[in-house]
């Protein structure tokens, strides 16, 4: 049953992508209502799948593929809502593409990592903050890539940069730093709850998560300081945003990927 739900969700995500891409390439109107309906259908099925995969009868199955699928759900949900107010057409195919990969992997590849968050509410708070921090800063990384792409097109004075389906460069930059600011606040709370609630934070196998997450936090704080106090723009912004996201990816998924995927 889970495989059928995953395939149906993937088809709806693919339908949304197929509706968006021609408008981006040909600079024609995008049928936003059709995209939204496909996205909502995919998200409903994706959420149903996650509830089946994660809410195991013996606890919560937080294996790496389920967590990656959950993060994809959060990212696609946020961006799908954003399409109602902001032109995020450049970002949606990327987010939907990753969602397809993650949900199919979680549905078709077996595995388990059972936890009991109902017994440790402090850990539930920490994990929830970590998921939302990572998802928010992942969206920030996507915005940074879009900003770099738009900036390159404008510098080359290509007509594609005036595509009506793409947002203005300055709007993307403003949205980027709003997202980075929110993500950094969430990451700060994640680190605070991690140190306050998880007593074996630096135990074997967990120290790298704390260290890499803290380095990523420094990267984002420096990025915000550089932009608001020093006026940083352009490629420097993109590299900092991507570096922070890469560090968090290593922190959240590095050792789990080796243990659950490579060594199994």
Automatic annotation (TrEMBL):
<protein>
    <submittedName>
        <fullName>Cytochrome c biogenesis protein CcsA</fullName>
    </submittedName>
</protein>
<keyword id="KW-1133">Transmembrane helix</keyword>
<dbReference type="Pfam" id="PF01578">
    <property type="entry name" value="Cytochrom_C_asm"/>
</dbReference>
<feature type="transmembrane region" description="Helical">
    <location>
        <begin position="210"/>
        <end position="228"/>
    </location>
</feature>
<keyword id="KW-0812">Transmembrane</keyword>
<feature type="transmembrane region" description="Helical">
    <location>
        <begin position="63"/>
        <end position="81"/>
    </location>
</feature>
<feature type="transmembrane region" description="Helical">
    <location>
        <begin position="237"/>
        <end position="255"/>
    </location>
</feature>
<keyword id="KW-0472">Membrane</keyword>
<feature type="transmembrane region" description="Helical">
    <location>
        <begin position="176"/>
        <end position="198"/>
    </location>
</feature>
<feature type="transmembrane region" description="Helical">
    <location>
        <begin position="123"/>
        <end position="150"/>
    </location>
</feature>
<feature type="transmembrane region" description="Helical">
    <location>
        <begin position="88"/>
        <end position="111"/>
    </location>
</feature>
<feature type="transmembrane region" description="Helical">
    <location>
        <begin position="6"/>
        <end position="25"/>
    </location>
</feature>
<dbReference type="InterPro" id="IPR002541">
    <property type="entry name" value="Cyt_c_assembly"/>
</dbReference>
<feature type="transmembrane region" description="Helical">
    <location>
        <begin position="34"/>
        <end position="51"/>
    </location>
</feature>
<feature type="domain" description="Cytochrome c assembly protein">
    <location>
        <begin position="37"/>
        <end position="262"/>
    </location>
</feature>
<dbReference type="InterPro" id="IPR052372">
    <property type="entry name" value="YpjD/HemX"/>
</dbReference>
